[in-house]
Amino acid sequence: MEWARRTDVCRRGRSVQPQKEQTLGASTIGYRHDMTHEGRALSPREQAAWRGFVAMQAGVRAVLASELQQRFGLSEPDYAVLVELSEGPEEGLRLRDLAGRLRWDKSRLSKQIGRMAARGLVERRGFASDARGAVAVLTKTGRDAITRASPVQSAGVRRWFINPLTPKQLDAIIEISTAVTDNLAPPQPD
User: Where are the extended beta strands (E) located within the chain?
Assistant: First the structure.
């Protein structure tokens, strides 16, 4: 099976021998052996799926991030914030709502908004109806940045992620990502 052959080759093309014992400092992208008393080790097929996902995601994100940085001076987090704000209401998004959309903690978002505000991409404002809340608002500079970067980002996503897939594979990845995302969502009360 194809997945079995892939487990024996690392990213640099060198052969990797499966380890028989638990190792200290095993990679967080998958354990070669059971690292807890409650779980069990991933099967070779599960390991191939997990490591393939991690390698694919890291590779695609690295290529896209590099292009954003080189061409537009935007980091991947800058772009993520700009996308959410450009798709949100014109009056901006509450920071807590923006953090939820990005799945970031409050501290990370606060620091990111501070860096972006210093560069003129966003503004942090008080929320009109609630003095306790703050809102992030896209500035003209930020809107211009997302307008210029978005077509290039879309072309990169198409080149590095969409084009290598058949329509059937694209449908499968939609189904897979939906299943995993749904599994991550907190249970809804009945």
Answer: 93-94, 122-127, 130-138
Dihedral pair phi/psi, residue 123, rounded to 5°:
-125, 145
CA neighbor of 149 nearest in space, from 67, 62, 84: 67
Range(s) of the domain holding residue 115: 2-10+27-34+41-167
- How far is CA 153 from its chain centroid? 14
Residue with tokens 């590095």: 160
In a domain, 181, yes or no: no
Could you list the pLDDT tens digit for every one of the 190 residues in the chain?
444 444 343 333 433 444 333 333 334 444 444 455 458 999 999 999 999 999 999 999 999 999 999 999 999 999 999 999 999 999 899 999 999 999 999 999 999 999 999 999 999 998 655 555 799 999 999 999 999 999 999 999 999 999 999 999 999 999 999 999 999 887 777 6
Count of the separate structural domains present in the chain: 1
Q: In what order do the strands lie in the sheet with 93-94?
A: 93-94, 130-138, 122-127
Buried b (16+ CB within 10 A) or exposed e, 156-165: beeebbeeee
162 lies in a domain?
A: yes
**AA letter at 108:** R
What's the rounded Cα separation, in Å, for the pair 47 and 30? 7
Could you give the CA distance from residue 176 to residue 178 in angstroms, rounded to a whole number? Answer: 5
The four Cα atoms 109, 110, 113, 117 give a dihedral, to 10 degrees, of 180
